[in-house]
Amino acid sequence: MTFAQLGLTEALLNAVAEQGYANPTPVQEQAIPLILAGRDLLAGAQTGTGKTASFTLPLLQRLAANYDPHQKPCLVRALILAPTRELAAQVYDSVVAYGKFLPLHVEAVVGGASIGMQTRQLKRGCDIVVATPGRLIDHIQQRNIRLSNVEILVLDEADRMLDMGFMPDVKQIMALLPKQRQCLLFSATVPNAIKTLAASVLNNPAEVAVAKANATADNISELVYGIPREYKRELLSYLVGSNNWRQVLVFVRTKHGADRLEKQLIEDGIRTAALHGDKTQGARNKALEYFKEGKVQVLVATDVAARGLDIDDLPHVVNFDLPQVPEDYIHRIGRTGRAGSSGAAISLVCPEEAWQLVEIEKLLKRQIPRIADTGYEPVSLKVMDAPKKNAPNKVTGKKDYRHSKKTTAKPATRPGKPTAGKPRKKSK
Ligand code: AMP
Q1: In terms of domains, do 128 and 244 share one?
Q2: Which atom of ligand 1 approaches the CA of 308 most closely?
Q3: Can you give the CATH number for the domain in which 176 is found?
Q4: How many angstroms is it from 247 CA to the middle of ligand 1?
Q5: Ligand 1 atom 21 nearest Cα
Q6: Arithmetic mean of pLDDT, 3-13
Q7: Is 347 in the pocket of ligand 1 (CB under 6 A)?
Q8: Mutate to test the pocket of ligand 1, among 52, 156, 208 (most ligand atoms within 8 A of CB)
Q9: Atom 1 (ligand 1): residue with closest C-alpha?
């Protein structure tokens, strides 16, 4: 199948050729003809599948077919909502790239950037707005934008918008749209809450679901290291240093944890930057830029900050902390093994997180291989119970101090203690 066979016009075919895409990806093959035909769409597709082009290309084509050079101030014809600034920025870049040979005007409306500049652009009138919900609502309240002419709405990464608590904002925005409009809902996972949303906002939708073509065991090797929490940092430094990993995205649970790990890795001599929601937009852009350029080896990020990042050919992803939501494991490892290249997704799992590992494996319907060759005594990840909120952890591997009668005393040999001072690879 070629892009031309999908019914795209010359201007878009040229833009796609400039990007160097030879053939459409499965989600593009399925979604583009449906969107061109005006259908509403529920698409189960995650980052890395080519989903952005699958909605951007037909959206541009439909708008260009009725192009009005005198777009009225504050009115927009297409609205793309994305959960994070980074994702919105990437979608914006895609719209600009694919729309290069079309006269359509696109504007990014995201937090962290000058509201004055955005206001001026909106007041001039633009065809397409790519927005995060919060900033868009600011502009709506200030009457800088009106949504009454929107012909196409895209909800990108809808499951993430749901997780991040944006649904009330999204519903508020949706209420301002005309009844007659095309709506495209993209979501990496389609839990019940997304199905409910789809039922309320989509009109007789076509459904498309693709697995990420390269998110298979074939080219992403997944491994779990059973390791006590207190040795995780040491093991990470060792893995990065001894294997000379040049580009590693490390996921942590909290912003504070990201800052702390960044500092520790820098102390270990590893060029590291952190990316999280408390950083200014400038600092976030810089961290990402340095990472992409190879000026930093390790980017430590929270899920929210890393969501939707388009970093090609990322060779290594490390789960320093396991995600709270099992679906995030899939999002995280989706950062690696892009475009047919191989990647490794490594999880450093302490006994306290063993129940999260069980949840992830339940979702994946398979076991992730464990590695014992760490130079550490492996810890057992046998699960007893998921901890209740605020309750002491009930997870243990061996007969260790957490379950011994002497609750205060640590055993002489703690589980997972390095076998010989520094972690070393076992000789074969
Ligand atoms: P996305 O799933 O939209 O985040 O896209 C992931 C990556 O795939 C981006 O870097 C795109 O530039 C790239 N891409 C999109 N469509 C194609 C295609 N048909 N062939 C090759 N790469 C593509």
Answers
A1: no
A2: 4
A3: 3.40.50.300
A4: 20
A5: 21
A6: 96
A7: no
A8: 52
A9: 50
Can you give the pLDDT at residue 371? Answer: 78
Q: How far is the CA of 314 from the centre of ligand 1 (A)?
A: 14
- 269 in any annotated domain: yes
Q: Which two tokens stand for residue 307?
A: 């969501």
Ramachandran area for residue 375 (φ above 0: left; ψ -120 to 50: alpha; else beta): left
Q: Is any ligand 1 atom within 6 A of the Cβ of residue 47?
A: yes
Q: For ligand 1, is residue 21 a contact (CB within 6 Å)?
A: yes
Residues 150 and 295 grouped into a single domain = no
Q: Per the structure block, which two tokens stand in for 42?
A: 């529920």
- DSSP 8-state symbol, 4: G
Please say which residue of 352, 371, 390 terminates a domain: 371
CA distance 294 to 279: 20
Q: Summarize pLDDT for 173-223 with one digit per residue, the tens.
A: 999 999 999 999 999 888 888 999 999 999 999 999 886 543 444 567 899
Is pLDDT at 286 greater than 60 in this prediction?
yes
Q: Say which residues have a Cβ less than 8 Å from residue 256's Cβ, sequence separation at least 6.
A: none
Establish whether residue 337 lines the binding site of ligand 1, counting it when its CB lies within 6 angstroms of any ligand atom.
no
Residue 261 DSSP label: H
Q: Are residues 154 and 278 in the same domain?
A: no
Residue 180 CB-half CA count within 13 A: 1
| Domain stops at, among 323, 340, 371 | 371
Six-digit token string for 54 = 């699958």
For 181-193, write each residue's pLDDT tens digit: 999 999 988 888 8
pTM above 0.85, yes or no: no
Sign (positive or negative) of CA dihedral 358, 362, 364, 365: positive
Q: How far is the CA of 24 from the centre of ligand 1 (A)?
A: 9
Q: Is the CB of 24 under 6 A from ligand 1?
A: yes
Rounded Cα gap, residues 251 and 348, in angstroms = 10
* Rounded distance between C-alpha atoms, residue 266 and residue 260, angstroms: 10
What is the C-alpha separation between 302 and 316, in angstroms, rounded?
16
Q: Are both 200 and 53 inside the same structural domain?
A: yes
Compute the distance from residue 58 Cα to the ligand 1 centre, in Å.
Answer: 15
Ligand 1, atom 6: nearest CA belongs to which residue? Answer: 48
CA pair distance 362, 354, nearest whole angstrom: 12
CA distance 27 to 50: 7
- 378: in domain: no
Q: Pairing between strand 370-371 and 343-349? A: unpaired
CB distance 52 to ligand 1 below 6 Å:
yes
Does the structure show a pLDDT above 90 at 279?
no
Looking up tokens 């694919």 gives: 98
Domain residues for 256? 220-371
